[in-house]
Amino acid sequence: MKNRLLPHWKRVIPLLLLGMQTVLWSWAQGGHPVPPPPPPGVKKIKCSGRPVPQLEDITKKTGIHFIHTADPEKKYIVESMGGGVLLLDYDRDGWPDIYFTNSPTVAMAMKGEKSPGALYHNNHDGTFTDVTAKAGVATPCFAMGGAVGDYNNDGWPDIYVTCFGGNVLYRNNGDGTFTDVTAKAGVADGRWSTGAAFGDYDGDGFVDLMVANYVDFHLDDMPRFGSSPTCKYRGLDVQCGPRGLKGAGDSLFHNNGDGTFTDVSKSAGVDDPNGYYGLGVVWADFNNTGRPDIYVANDSGPNFLYRNEGKGKFTDIGLESGTAVSEDGSEQASMGVAIGDYNHTGRPSLMVTDFTDEDDALCRNDGDWDFHDVSYQAGVALPSLPWVKWGDAFVDLDNDGWLDLIAVSGHVYPQVNTLPSGGGYRQPKLLHLNQQDGTFCDASDLAGPALLERRVSRGLAVGDLFNDGNMDVVINDLDGGSHGSEEPWSCRRPLDQSGTRRRKKQPSGDRRAAQDRCRRRNPD
Amino acid sequence: MDEGKVKEAILHLETAVRLNPQTDYMHYQLQAAYRMDSRIQDADRELALYKEIKAGKREREAQGMGRD
Fold first, then answer.
1. Do B51 and A319 lie within an 8 Å CB cutoff?
2. Is B2–A5 a contact, with Cβ atoms under 8 angstroms apart?
3. What pTM does this model have?
4. Mean pLDDT, consecutive 10-residue segments, chain A of 524 residues?
């Protein structure tokens, strides 16, 4: 691929000679250092001359009425970070079901009140039924996100919910109910956990559990709104953190194969002694060794790539591999992580979402632990700059055999709505279509109104909810919907499939036909 | 560097590091260039400097921007 951009050192050295480095790294945004500007000459790659999958918000048709609890002011950081969503076929009927996490406001939590999450059963006809009460998974905790895995190898997917103040492991009983087995399993952690993922790092046939922790935060000792430089954003008083607050280390729990786990974080070398602010976490065999490695996205710090050395040991090679910081060496506020072989090399690459003014980082895996930040060259960086990006996924939305990219957005500070400029609190979503040459084109405003509707989105999960061969997208939003909508979650599905020449000639007709098909499959 | 002019980039980056020895990201970029040129020992040295400067910054931030 020909690089359309100036080599990076050519961009940076002139800035240095002008003495601008102090400007780039000033604290103009309170807790958020100003990132370097985009490289000169970089241009957006808009999709044109190709079919674009259309995504429709079908929330109202599905019978799902889940609403994530929210304090509109978000005076505390713990109120801005929740909103996870999991897809799992809990009853093994062949149809994916949905679990939404929920968390109370700080005021509610101080009074001991909880906010129920929700498990929705897939009815196979485009609708879902709330089975939370029967399943026994309503109020695990002050929830952030979670992971799905069969920890006891009984063939039934179990649920691990990450929480502020103690995580919960639900064992799937195989009869539509779950049992909280956290105490026996020993996986509560107890800190403020955010991301989690199951993976068998030692090849013993039992999935182990990696948990990312965020900030050392306590309801009885909360930093006061707007009270210090790290509680300011563009001159506004905002919630404090994560900068300025103490971080929390991470955890790796080894599955003992008898329903219990052992905390091996320290001996494995993944305990994060510096206490970076962990969010997203994934397992992937990045160098085809047969052993899964771990990647952790840290907010406002370097990310970790833990190479699995075997024998229960990991080594962080984030900086050496080019996956810890941006191409120019700046630490980013990383949040979501997606992995996928988007360029058909047989190696999983990484896509990490970041804060506003920071580009989403596409780290191309060139093999032998060598990654390159190709975000600008690949076309995914520039469209992402205005937004605060969260959940993301590599997913083939147009069924052309190449992974596309989707990411959801939403600011953490509602107060930004008073600013004359910027992306605002509610934000649209990003869709990048794979051009099959290592680049993506921006289709965010071409895929229908659902992606353009501004929301405060957090968690994202992808799967074929309706077994029709089309991948669907499920999102958990905070603060309700925009434009008077009351659905703070949304399920968006592609309405048509690309790649047919017929559609290229008659895009409008095909789109209408596809919409009709969708309506028939999903009656109101 | 993406154009394969790694040695040329190294020369420029070494100059930049000499002029701005406390600028963390210059060290990061120089280590990346060294690594691309298979000069692993040099790369590791620059990476250690990058980490040292970053750690110092973090310590200063922690001292100056704690909770009230």
1. yes
2. yes
3. 0.88
4. 38 33 32 72 93 94 93 97 97 98 97 96 97 95 97 98 98 98 98 98 98 97 94 96 94 98 98 97 97 97 97 97 92 96 98 95 97 95 97 97 98 96 95 98 97 96 96 93 41 38 30 32 30
| Chain B contacts in chain A segment 16-45 (CB below 8 A) | 16-17, 21, 31
CB atoms near residue B25 (< 10 Å): 25
N-term to C-term CA, chain A: 47
Q: List CB contacts of A130: < 8 A, sequence separation 6 or more.
A: A64, A65, A66, A118, A119, A120, A121
Residues of B in contact with A240 (CB under 8 A): 67
> What phi and psi values does residue A327 have, to the nearest 5 degrees?
-55, -35
Q: Look up the ipTM and state it.
A: 0.85
Is B67 in Cβ contact with A240 (below 8 Å)? yes
A199 strand-pairing partners: A208
Q: Which residues in B lie closer than 8 A to residue A230 (C-beta atoms)?
A: 65
Distance in Å, alpha carbon of B1 to nearest chain A alpha carbon: 6
Other Cβ atoms closer than 10 A to A226? 16
Contacts of B5 (CB under 8 A, 6+ apart): A7
Q: Which residues does chain A have within 8 Å of residue B29's beta carbon, measured at their own beta carbons?
A: 8-9, 12, 328-329
Instruction: Residue A330: list chain B partners with CB under 8 A.
Output: 25
Encode A202-267 in three state secondary structure. Answer: CCCCCCEEEEEECECCCCCCCCCCCCCHHHEECCEECCCCCCCCCECCCEEEEECCCCCEEECHHH
